[in-house]
């Protein structure tokens, strides 16, 4: 998967926000990030299925328990991490390094 440096940096920021909210068990923040930010990023990246599934996590049927919601969020984070790894692997040599330098 080819992502522009801007999308790669946005994904890195999004993952950091999701991990922080997950580490603190902040369900409201996780729901907000999932519905608004993941969906926005996925649309920009051309990942319509990811956008739809992230919206469905929040707007679909109620979760059976708090743990079920957290499990779904963990799966979403893993999916985004896999996209990040794919993008880094597909990036031409130096492009990923340039994205990291731009970030600093």
Number of helices: 5
Uncertain runs = none
Helix-strand string: HHHHH
Between the first and last Cα atoms, what is the distance in angstroms? 24 Å
Mean pLDDT: 89
Largest sheet: none
Helix content: over 70%
Shape: globular
The radius of gyration is 14 Å
The helix-and-strand class reads mainly alpha
The proportion of residues in beta strands is under 5%
Q: How many individual β-strands?
A: 0
Could you walk me through the main structural features you see in this protein, from its secondary elements to its overall organization?
This protein has helices at 5-23, 27-44, 48-59, 66-90, 95-103. Helix 1 (5-23) packs antiparallel against helix 2 (27-44) and helix 1 packs across helix 5. It has 104 residues and is mainly alpha-helical. Helix content is 80%, strand content 0%. It has 5 helices and no strands.
Write the SSE topology.
Blueprint: H1 5-23, H2 27-44, H3 48-59, H4 66-90, H5 95-103
Helix pairs in contact: 1-2, 1-4, 1-5, 2-3
Question: Can you tag this structure with a few keywords?
Answer:
104 residues, mainly alpha, globular, 80% helix
Please outline what is shown here.
The chain is mainly α.
